[in-house]
Design a protein that fits this description.
single chain, about 350 residues, alpha+beta, 4-stranded antiparallel beta sheet, 9 strands, globular
Length: about 350
């Protein structure tokens, strides 16, 4: 009896320990779900919309032959197939099913990106995801969802927030990415550049380093587009394309200079109030310099839906896409324009 009693007590103690472990596990699981419920919901909706786009894919060749698209749109899809083949043969970009298929998304923009910073900092908020790693933006397929999240960031976390549309996104080769109906609003050169840019992400992507990833893809996009134009008898249009880049770069240099000035201001010994005053002056000057023709997107906090005011967050995408551009462009020049050597060097330096 004594031995049996001992075993019963041991069994009871073990059961209690197991129950305690189960209860603790359940509590931890509850806390984790509570903390990440919003993220889980976000990822679910993003995955659902992404799969809707994937299931809508049709071969471009089929759309050209039998689709209901206009002759102009079919001509643009032929351009896509041409630049797609060129990118694999001459730029060393992946040769897969991406951009050989087409999806009608039924709206003007595929989605909206959110960028956010503290009021007195140019350092962007980062969001981390599986595969992509940590990035300086959070994308939404629905504009209403993006604006709701942006308003929440602005009001509950007191951040500067910028919401801007995006034209495309890459699955980094995990899916055969389609050309979207919204892309057909672009002229043939911007469309060709977009295809090269997105394929560049498939060739090389460094998780957690948005500045290198976007600048890298932009370098490949610009040089790749010029080479495609030369090979396909479009040399006469290269000066016009280059002029558009030059005009864009003037605006970008103004923005980068303002960002550098703000970074210095926020790191100075001035008090918060003085920094806010100087920030307002700098951004007002920047707005007059770059927004004469209008600035796109939406910023928070703002007076009303029709008011656009440049803030710290507005500067983030420009720094992300062009902060490392000159360095990487010089790297391509340094390897005599050899893309394969360029890819290896970028991987060696940044990965």
């Amino acid at each position: 009896m004594e031995g049996i009693g001992f075993n019963m007590h041991a069994a009871l103690g073990l059961l209690l320990k197991k129950r305690t472990i189960i209860v603790l596990f359940a509590m931890v699981l509850f806390v984790v779900l509570a903390l990440y419920a919003e993220l889980v919901g976000y990822l679910y909706h993003a995955a659902t919309e992404h799969m809707r786009i994937m299931f809508a894919r049709k071969p471009i060749a089929q759309e050209i032959a039998t689709g209901n698209l206009s002759p102009d749109d079919k001509a643009k899809l032929r351009v896509v197939l041409d630049v797609r083949g060129f990118a694999s043969r001459y730029l060393g970009l992946p040769d897969n099913g991406s951009y050989t298929v087409y999806s009608d998304i039924g709206r003007e923009n595929v989605g909206w990106n959110i960028y956010a910073t503290p009021k007195l900092s140019v350092v962007p908020r980062r969001w981390c995801f599986p595969i992509a790693g940590c990035v300086v933006y959070r994308g939404f397929f629905a504009k209403a969802d993006a604006l709701a999240f942006a308003r929440k960031l602005s009001e509950s976390e007191d951040l500067d927030v910028y919401v801007g549309p995006f034209d495309a996104y890459s699955t980094l080769g995990y899916f055969n990415d389609p050309v979207l109906s919204s892309h057909l609003a672009l002229d043939e050169y911007r469309l060709a550049a977009l295809i090269i840019h997105e394929l560049a992400h498939q060739r090389l992507y460094i998780p957690g380093n948005s500045r290198v990833n976007e600048a890298f893809a932009t370098v490949v996009e610009r040089e790749g587009l010029v080479r495609w134009m030369r090979q396909t008898g479009r040399e006469a249009s290269i000066p016009r394309v280059q002029a558009s880049w030059d005009a864009q770069d003037i605006k970008i240099r103004e923005i980068v200079a303002a960002r550098d000035a703000l970074k210095e201001l926020y790191g100075s010994a001035l008090g918060p109030r003085e920094k806010e005053i100087e920030k307002a002056k700098l951004l007002d000057h920047l707005s007059k310099a770059v927004c004469a023709g209008g600035c796109s997107g939406i910023t928070f906090p703002k007076a009303n839906e029709n008011t656009f005011e440049i803030n710290n967050a507005y500067l983030v995408p420009f720094d992300t896409y062009f902060g490392e551009y000159d360095t990487l462009r010089s790297l391509l020049t340094g390897v005599s324009g050899d893309f394969e050597r360029f890819y290896r060097e970028v991987q060696r330096i940044y990965d």
